[in-house]
Design brief:
A alpha/beta (about 425); B mainly alpha (about 300); C mainly alpha (about 270); A: 2 domains; about 10% strand; C: about 270 residues; 2 domains
């Protein structure tokens, strides 16, 4: 009896420990499996499912296991944590070039130029400038250029027409503000404004600024990004003040809603424009109510702007991780993802233009563009895009700008000039790495 | 391991220890072994590590770098950190009084001859057992300026809608009200337990002396409830300093940093900016503040042990 | 006059209680409403729809999260009951070197705010390679200081004759603890069990930090990310459906064991 209960207790304790400790073992991979993390949006998962199924059928010895990225606040946090923990996948198809310095600092990514036939493949597929722009300071390249989402202004064709607004007038700040005044109305007579031209995000999360301040800044400055070639703060200028003034005026004059709107009110017909990328096309087509008509145009710029409108390109690349036990097999799989056939499939499913040379003239892609004329606008805009600066402090700099945006534009607590000055000061402080 | 209060005498220390070991219950060592291991790995090691981090710069992926007192100096002049501290204090300034008044009021009513006491007590307690995630997601909708339930009621009554979460001077108080709603049931139960320990004879004696209900409350109930009150204040202070999920889900710290709490700032530094050393410094500053504030509360309320 | 006062008391109490229950009813009803109806106060959906639940089930592996949460909470609670009662027993009933030191450590570590050790704990989990595993959620939660104190207190109150008699029968300390003390300690076991289970079930911050894979997430974490991370696509009905599913297990358990819940949590508050 004495031993029986003692051993029984010990057995329970041991069993509890085993259960909790063995969870890791269950997850262990078999040697020929490659893990692949696509982005978590529904279209990209659909694409990933199709190509993974095809690949697995064709390559019984290299099986790919797909695990969509958790859609937490950002992919960057997830990948950094995975690098620190050594739990990176073999391939990730949502590498954001702005965070690449951090990934490289953590020795997370594989030097892709060492892969067999790397340059033959990428130069064949993508324009040389694009490939070179993603080459890191140390001469290696840690990512494979994949696709971009030039950001444009989507507008509700009928809503603008009904209110007598010519979409072309939205191309400058003054025209945009005038139209905003015309549209801000109480349509159901309850004494509250419920229709707007534009509803900028009031969320302070850093990446929200990609789709308001950053895009507008690139456009207003004729294609500048936040830092210069030597990695110094470059956004303390008139263009930034102009963007802050523009956004602040919208909030100040109550031409845009300050609270969060419930539901997607662009599709709901309450907000006439939104700044977004081509990936919204399939979403709109699936979710738009009957008779909803939309189109795209370049984002607004300050009055008197000359030359083409440059915009944020929202580039996303594919990367193979240093931790991968099968980089060569992973490379084969990546080449498969980026093949001509799969680029077309990708375009068809997600409406995101791949970095592929002469795509509009390619006979294989011609039927697609004929069927989707709106996409050619994005391909045209694609020639005038900027990505993000290469700095490991980028998230923090965007957070600092977001703070000023919130203080100045949304809440009117600061002049645009002071907001830009303070944002630049904070950014310098951050870059100094105190 | 240190032994408790062993006096050094002849025979030698070690011999005495050996003797003591021989006469002790051996099972004790095995039974506390899991605790000791757990303590060493998950309490002692992280504490020492956190302390070291205060003097380092580290982004998890690159090597750790010793920076001396730079994190502490930075903390002193980091306006964002002090904004977070102020926000937390503002939160507590509304949360604690609201909590105590409401909990006490309901507890006193429930302590009287009330039918359906179980039902009422259960209703007030319900939010407390439910995940903070549910509560915040739910209240975010209730607080919505354009379509939230509160503003719908206000506009029906002819008042103008309130920007609950979008006005920098209101948002933190909106969160404090929500947190009170979530936790007050727990404190009602604590007060109820305290009230039930007040001897009935005291009230009887007082009413014979001609004291009315109000006098009885202030002269008998309140003094006897002091330990429970201190407990409520301390628990809600400690909980309030830990404010995180509410601003994380509802506002992300905005508008204009008005709902940025200390823990949210710590989280951002650690897991968004990868400033582990700085985040650890914030953690120690927070622990120090909690310690000091609860110490002051203890002194002010003049209770040595609240329980 | 007296009855008037009484009625007034009930009216106030009922109104207050309603403000505590109404938001939950609103949440449940909103989860069955189409988007266009959500901005109304009515609790009965005019056009009943399961679209919100459909969105949750198609977009996130909520059932896996439910399993993860149950698994993690049950194992952690079992571990806490076993280990804390062992420590409580040793501290209450056994004589050994370092006993007082350990009891002081238990009291002291209860004062340490969790935020302080958050980062080193995260680093530790990463270094151990436990990120994205159940171990990260279970092992650090296997011990409870409050549990130890409650068990110690209770075990000290049990009569020494019980122990003496058991020893004469040749029982080991383990047998005394698990065969004699445990059956007598139902209130303490329930108290520690419920508080641990609820605490574990509702924890958001820790899983948010150590779990990144969808497969491994707990319910509150997944539901939080679902509504914060924009996956819900600003569909309020879907957010409310997810929140309802997260609340439901606890509410059901609460309805069954209401008194246990309240008393045990109050007790833990007073003890802790």
């Amino acid at each position: 009896m004495r031993t029986s209960i003692k051993s029984r207790v010990a057995a329970i304790v041991a069993a509890l420990l085993m259960v909790s400790l063995s969870c890791g073992i269950i997850e262990a991979k078999t040697p020929v499996t490659i893990t692949f993390w696509p982005s978590s949006n529904p279209q990209e998962i659909e694409f990933a499912k199709i190509i993974v199924a095809r690949w697995n059928k064709q390559n019984p010895d290299i099986q790919v296991k797909m695990e969509p990225l958790p859609a937490s606040r950002s992919t960057e946090e997830v990948l950094l944590a995975a690098i620190a923990a050594g739990t990176t996948p073999d391939v990730c198809a949502n590498i954001y070039p702005g965070a690449i310095s951090q990934y490289i600092a953590g020795k997370g990514l594989y030097p892709h130029d060492k892969l067999p036939g790397f340059y033959d493949f990428v130069y064949e597929r993508s324009p040389k400038e694009i490939v070179d722009s993603f080459t890191y300071r140390d001469g290696h390249i840690y990512q494979i250029p994949w696709k971009a989402n030039p950001v444009m202004l989507a507008y509700n064709v009928n809503l603008l027409r009904e209110n007598g607004i010519d979409p072309r007038s939205l191309s400058t700040y003054s025209g945009f503000l005038k139209a905003a005044e015309k549209l801000a109305k109480d349509t159901d007579g309850d004494g509250r404004i419920d229709q707007w031209l534009y509803a900028p995000s009031t969320d302070v999360t850093w990446w929200q600024r990609f789709f308001d301040f950053y895009t507008l800044y690139i456009a207003a400055s004729g294609g500048k990004t936040l830092l210069d070639d030597r990695g110094r703060v470059a956004f303390e200028d008139e263009a930034a003040v102009a963007v802050f003034t523009f956004l602040r005026t919208l909030f100040d004059k109550k031409l845009v809603p300050k609270g969060m709107l419930i539901g997607d009110q662009f599709l709901g017909g309450k907000v006439a424009t939104t700044i977004t990328g081509p990936y919204s096309i399939p979403y709109y087509d699936q979710n738009a109510p009957e008779g909803f008509k939309y189109d795209f145009m370049p984002v607004p710029v300050p009055d008197g702007h000359k030359g083409p409108v440059v915009t944020y390109g929202d580039p996303k690349n594919i990367g193979i991780f240093a931790n991968s036990k099968h980089p060569l097999e992973a490379w084969e799989f990546v080449k498969f993802i980026m093949s001509r056939e799969n680029d077309l499939l990708w375009l068809e499913i997600t409406s995101q233009p791949p970095y592929r040379k002469d795509i509009v003239d390619d006979p294989m892609f011609a039927p697609y563009f004929k069927k989707n004329p709106m996409m050619s606008k994005f391909v045209v805009q694609g020639a005038y895009t900027r990505g993000v600066d290469d700095s490991k402090y980028l998230i923090e700099i965007f957070d600092a700008i977001s703070k000023q945006y919130d203080l100045c534009c949304v809440n009117g607590r600061k002049t645009p000039k002071n907001a830009v000055r303070d944002g630049a000061r904070d950014a310098r402080d951050i870059l100094a790495g105190w | 391991m240190k032994e408790a209060a062993v006096e050094e005498r002849q025979p030698s220390y070690l011999a005495r220890l050996r003797m003591e070991y021989r006469s002790s219950d051996k099972a004790g060592y095995i039974m506390v072994l899991p605790y000791v291991l757990h303590f060493l790995v998950f309490v002692a090691y992280p504490l020492v590590f956190a302390f070291i981090l205060v003097f380092c710069k580290w982004d998890i992926v690159s090597p750790m770098e010793f920076v001396g007192l730079r994190n502490i100096q930075r903390l002193m002049r980091d306006t964002t950190f002090w904004t977070a501290v102020t926000n937390t204090l503002k939160f507590l300034a509304l949360h604690i009084p609201l909590q105590i008044v409401f909990a006490l009021l309901i507890a006193v009513v429930l302590n009287g001859p009330i039918k359906l006491r179980g039902f009422f007590r259960g209703a007030f307690f319900l939010p407390f057992v439910i995940s903070g995630a549910v509560v915040t997601i739910l209240w975010q909708q209730l607080y919505s300026t354009d379509a939230g339930v509160f503003n719908l009621i206000l506009t029906k009554l002819g008042a103008s809608p309130v920007p609950w979460l979008t006005d920098p001077s209101i948002a933190i108080y909106s969160i404090a009200v929500m947190a009170t709603w979530k936790n007050v049931g727990f404190y009602i139960v604590l007060f109820l337990a305290g009230l039930q320990n007040v001897p009935r004879e005291l009230y009887e004696a007082a009413s014979i002396d001609g004291a009315n209900r109000g006098e009885q409350f202030w002269k008998i109930t309140m003094p006897l409830l002091r330990p429970v009150t201190l407990l409520v204040i301390m628990l809600s202070t400690i909980g309030g300093f830990g404010l995180f999920i509410e601003p994380f889900v509802m506002t992300g710290g905005g508008p204009a940093e008005s709902t940025l709490s200390v823990v949210l700032y710590l989280y951002k530094n650690a897991f968004q900016f990868l400033k582990m050393g700085y985040a650890a410094t914030i953690g120690f500053a927070l622990a120090l503040m909690i310690f000091l504030v609860t110490l002051v509360q203890r002194k002010l309320l003049d209770v040595e042990q609240p329980y | 006059m007296r009855t008037f006062k009484k009625i007034l008391g009930y009216v106030i109490l009922t109104a207050a209680a309603l403000t505590f229950i109404y938001p939950f009813l609103w949440m449940i009803s909103a989860s069955f409403k189409p988007e266009s109806e959500i901005g109304s106060l009515s609790l009965i959906p005019k056009n009943f729809t399961l679209a919100g639940y459909g969105a949750v089930f198609t977009q996130i592996p909520i059932l896996k999260a439910l399993f993860n949460s149950v698994f993690v909470s049950v194992i952690s609670t079992a571990c806490v009951l076993i280990f804390s009662s062992m420590v409580g027993y040793a501290l209450a009933r056994l004589r050994f070197i370092g006993r007082d030191t350990i009891f002081n450590l238990v009291l002291l570590t209860m004062m340490i705010p969790g935020q302080l050790t958050l980062i080193p704990m995260y680093v530790l989990i990463v270094k151990l390679g436990w990120a994205d595993t159940y171990k990260a959620l279970i092992v650090p939660a296997m011990m409870s200081n409050m549990g130890i104190i409650i068990f110690r207190q209770f075990f000290m109150s049990l009569p020494q004759e019980l122990v003496d008699a058991a020893r004469i029968d040749g029982c080991s300390d383990y047998e005394i603890l698990f065969k004699i003390f445990w059956p007598l300690s139902k209130p303490s076991l329930v108290t520690v069990g419920i508080t641990t289970f609820i605490g574990s079930w509702n924890e958001v911050l820790w899983p948010l930090i150590v779990i990144r894979k969808w497969d491994m997430m707990t319910m509150p974490q997944m539901v939080t990310l679902f509504s914060v991370g924009g996956l819900a696509g600003a569909q309020v009905a879907a957010e409310m459906a997810a929140a309802t599913m997260l609340a439901l297990p606890v509410v059901i358990a609460y309805l069954f064991f209401q008194n246990y819940f309240i008393e045990s949590l109050a007790l833990s508050g007073i003890k802790g």
